[in-house]
Design a protein that fits this description.
The structure holds 2 protein chains of 2 kinds.
Chain A lengths: L7 H136 L3 H22 L1
Chain B lengths: L1 H17 L8 H9 L4 E7 L2 E6 L1 E6 L3 E6 L12 E2 L11 E3 L5 E2 L2 E2 L4 H26 L10 H21 L7 H19 L13 H17 L3 H8 L6 H4 L2 H41 L5 H43 L10
Antiparallel strand pairs in B: 1-2, 3-4, 3-8, 5-6, 6-7
Helix pairs in contact in B: 1-10, 2-9, 3-4, 3-5, 4-5, 4-10, 5-10, 6-9, 6-10, 9-10
The chains are: A mainly alpha, B mainly alpha.
Chain lengths: 169, 348
């Protein structure tokens, strides 16, 4: 039957036409389209990957930020506490040292005062002694202006010394 | 309901118009005239006068030598340079010449027949479409613009065939074959679709012609075997089977036949599907002409049914047009993929 026997002429033309169509399309048609589409697909895939990476990065950065803030807050708390304790310490220390110093000063002052007192007393004693010596000198000079008086006095003094020596021995 | 009645009444209208015609409808020539090839492109008949496009005939016979002429010269059984078209016999409808002993002989015949012209038109249309699409890509930056116009129309189809059919069937290295397979797909699709269009640039039964599908199958055969790997040919001619199956070459013979049946199945599948579709639609339409003699009521109702069924068949054929192009492409891709077995795989 004619339907199932291929006609040579049609086969011949068909091969030529399809060959030409194939040649033209394979050279100038499909490779351009498919390569462009593939290029775009790659681009989209890359963009998606990059977006994913960027998102991950942002998440990382956010996490880091949160960590940093937390750390800073903790540090702040710690520092506050430290500052408070150190302030308290300083105040206490200051108080202690102040009282110590005050006590020292007081003691020193007291010692000074005592010293001064003693010195003053000593000087007063000296002055008194000198004065009494001077007064007694004048009195003696007045009393011993005569020779009898002198010898009396010497005799008395010798007696007194003797008595004193006897008392001592 | 009113609408249906109106449609029925309209269907009955031709009954009264054509009632005068007293011609017996002949199914055979009607069917074969539409699905077969011919030397002229018959369009219609207006008032007994045939309107058809004459096409160039190119023949080279042993007796009469080469000749190029227009097919209208042979109209009505006339002779030109010893060539004529017999209306019956083995060579009915084909150009023949008389040999010296009086027998009819077919000359070497590469005439531009109806199907050749249809293939030329669809081929040109396809080239124009795809190049227009490629031009868009050449002139636009795909990374910045979405395809528009013809590129937007064709890109989804190209991408679908390229990635879901070709890439999945062939695997690695599919880029080398995708231009051929895409060309085959669009070529078959456009011819299938034009075959459904009932008037001039369409209407030819191109992909339902065995010579056309044979050419396509040949291209696939070449694509499969020209680029087949060593491994593929080894599996055909020296497969891993017991030696006695190779000494008496049973397995190589079977494998070799398998090599040929693959494109053969492609050829027959496309041919039979499209031909069957054409025959079905033509038969349904023929109901109108057959029932013309059966009285107005039967004629009207049959016409109504025929038109409805014809619309249904046309929709089905649209689907078939796509499916057959898809199947041809997919199987070609699978065959190409089979010719590139992975070396690492253990051979079965």
């Amino acid at each position: 039957m004619g339907l199932v026997t291929p006609s040579g002429g049609l086969l011949f033309w068909m091969v030529i036409i399809f060959g030409v169509v194939f040649f033209v399309l394979a050279k100038f048609g499909f490779p351009i389209i498919t390569s462009m589409v593939r290029k775009r697909n790659d681009y989209i895939a890359d963009s998606l990957k990059e977006a994913e990476q960027a998102r991950a990065q942002i998440e990382g950065v956010e996490e880091k930020c949160r960590q940093l803030i937390d750390e800073a807050r903790q540090e702040q708390g710690k520092m506050m506490e430290q500052a408070q304790t150190s302030a308290r310490q300083t105040i206490e220390e200051a108080k202690a040292s102040a009282s110590r110093e005050a006590a020292e000063l007081l003691a020193k002052a007291r010692a000074d005062i005592a010293l001064e007192q003693r010195e003053a007393l000593a000087s007063v004693r000296n002055v008194v002694a000198e004065l009494s010596v001077a007064v007694s000198e004048k009195i003696l000079r007045e009393k011993l202006s005569s020779d009898e008086a002198q010898s009396d006095f010497v005799a008395k003094a010798v007696d007194q010394v003797r008595e004193q020596q006897q008392k001592l021995s | 309901m009113k609408k249906w009645l109106l449609i029925l009444a309209l269907c009955l209208l031709p009954a009264t118009l054509c009632a005068a015609e007293e011609e017996q409808f002949d199914m055979g020539p009607y069917l074969f005239g539409h699905i077969g090839d011919s030397y002229e492109w018959h369009i219609t008949e207006i008032g007994g006068h045939e309107l058809s496009i004459p096409l160039p005939c190119i023949v080279w016979g042993k007796t009469n030598g080469p000749a190029v002429f227009i097919s209208s010269r042979l109209h009505g059984g006339e002779q030109y340079k010893g060539y004529f078209i017999p209306s019956e016999g083995d060579y009915a409808g084909k150009i023949v010449e008389k040999a010296a002993d009086g027998t009819l002989v077919r000359p070497f015949d590469i005439s531009i027949t109806k199907n050749v012209l249809a293939v030329m038109i669809s081929g040109a249309l396809l080239v124009w479409l795809i190049l227009a699409c490629a031009r868009w890509y050449r002139r636009h930056d795909v990374l910045k613009e979405a395809p528009s116009g013809i590129a937007a129309l064709l890109e989804p189809v190209i991408v679908m065939i390229d990635e879901e059919v070709i890439k999945d069937s062939i695997g690695e290295g599919y880029e080398r074959f995708s231009p051929y397979l895409l060309t085959a797909f669009f070529f078959i699709l456009i011819n299938n679709l034009l075959g459904i269009v009932p008037f001039f640039p369409g209407g030819a039964n191109v992909t339902g012609n065995i010579a056309v599908t044979m050419a396509l199958a040949l291209f696939t055969f070449v694509a499969v075997n020209l680029f087949g790997t060593k491994h593929y040919f080894k599996e055909i001619f020296w497969p891993d089977v017991p030696a006695f199956l190779k000494v008496i070459p049973i397995m190589p013979l079977i494998e070799f036949i398998g090599m040929l049946t693959k494109p053969f199945s492609l050829m027959v599948r496309l041919f039979a599907n499209i031909l069957a579709g054409h025959v079905l639609i033509l038969s349904v339409v023929a109901l109108v002409f057959i029932s013309a003699k059966m009285g107005p009521v039967l004629f009207g109702s049959m016409s109504f049914v025929a038109v409805l069924f014809g619309i249904f068949m046309d929709c089905l054929e649209l689907l078939v047009a796509f499916i057959q192009a898809y199947v041809f492409t997919m199987l070609s891709a699978v065959f190409i993929g089979l010719a590139h077995p992975k070396e690492a795989e253990p051979s079965k």
